[in-house]
Request: fold
Amino acid sequence: MKRLWIVLLGLTLLGPVLAGSSIDDFQEAKKVLFQRVYTPAQRTTFYCGCSFDSQKRVDAASCGYRVRKDAARGNRIEWEHIVPAAVFGQRLACWQNARSVCGRGGGRKCCSRTNPTFRSLEADMHNLVPAVGELNADRANYGFGLIAGEARQYGRCDFEVSNGLAEPRPEVRGNVARAYLYMNDRVQSDLGYGFLSSDQRRMYLQWHRTDPPDDWECQRHELIHRLQGNWNPYIVEGCE
Reply:
């Protein structure tokens, strides 16, 4: 019966999950997340679990974070795309031919200015989390996976970057997976192509199963649904 209910729920949510978001501006999305989702009681960074304040300053002592190199970005939060914008935007003409399309600026800026679908994807709050700025910079556009060994470049923060790959702590691997699976479906619907290989999809489905949504992920999802107007069905099925 539960399986049947999940199937029916998935069919019911198919429209809303694939529909464009009601928020189509990245700057607006960041403000909404900070003001209406990450209220003071929930102000912790995604990858390291560090507290941050109303000025977006990271409390390194709360999580044992140690700056690797960039003190300015290591002491503030930034809004991180779990699925980088380059992953879903780099096939677009506005990205590949930014100079001819826009005359100036890089691919992401050009697509943000000229492509409403990209702008909506870029602003999707289901794919945005607060992260220590230095980690956002070091991760760049790398994908996720498992890295041999347990090097600690950021103090006690369990986040590793090596050879074009990033490894998140086990407690958020399911969150990462659900963002990737959802965004892959949405990009497939909105732009006509997916970006996950079969091996990547297999890994993310495993992470999704082994790290189900916790209470905060479910609460966050419901808040974003109310504000943005669409669901992530990979979270919904684990929150009922």
Q: What stands out?
A: The chain is about 50% helix and 10% strand. The longest strand covers residues 77-81.
